[in-house]
Amino acid sequence: MVKKVLITVGALLTLFPAMAFAEAPSNAMLNTGLNSLWVMIAAVLVILMQGGFILLESGSTRMKNAGHVAGKTIFTFGLGSLIYWAIGYGFAFGGSGNLFIGLGDFFYNPGIVYGENDGLSPAIFFVFQLAFATISLSIAWGGFAERAKLSSYLIFTLIYVGLIYPIVAHWIWGGGWLAEDGAQDFAGSTVVHLSGAMAALAATILLKPRIGKFNKDGSANQILGHNQVFTALSVLLLWVGWFGFNAGSTIAVGDGLFGFVAFNTQLGAGAGAVAAMLISWIVLGKSDITAMLNGALAGLVAITASCAFVNPWAAVVIGLVAGVLVFFSQRFFEKKKIDDPIFALSVHGAAGVWGTLANGLFATPELVETVGVGRPGLFYGGGWGQLWVQFESVVVCGAFVFIVSFIVLSIVKMVTGFRVSEEQEIIGLDLSEHGAYGYPEQMKKGQQDLNA
Amino acid sequence: MSDPVRVQLLGEIGSAETITALRGLRDQVHNRMEALLPTLSVEQFYDQLNEVHDALIRRVIALAEADMARMGKGSPPVPYAYLLFGSGGRQEQTLSSDQDSGIVYGNPDSEDDKAKVETYFKELASTIVASLQETGYPPCDGNVISSNPQWCMSITDWEKQLDHWFDEADWEFVRYLLIVADGRLVYGDRELARKLKNAFYSDTLAKPLIVRRMLENTMRHKMLLGVFGQLLKEQYGEEAGSIDIKYGAYIPMVNAIRLMAIQAGLRETSTLERISELKNRDMLAAEDASVYAETFRIFLKLRLITIEHTEDGMFTNNGKLAGSRLTKEMKDELKLALKTGQKLQRRVYKQTMGKLG
Question: Which residues form the Protein-PII uridylyltransferase N-terminal domain (chain B) (predicted)?
Answer without folding.
Answer: 39-170
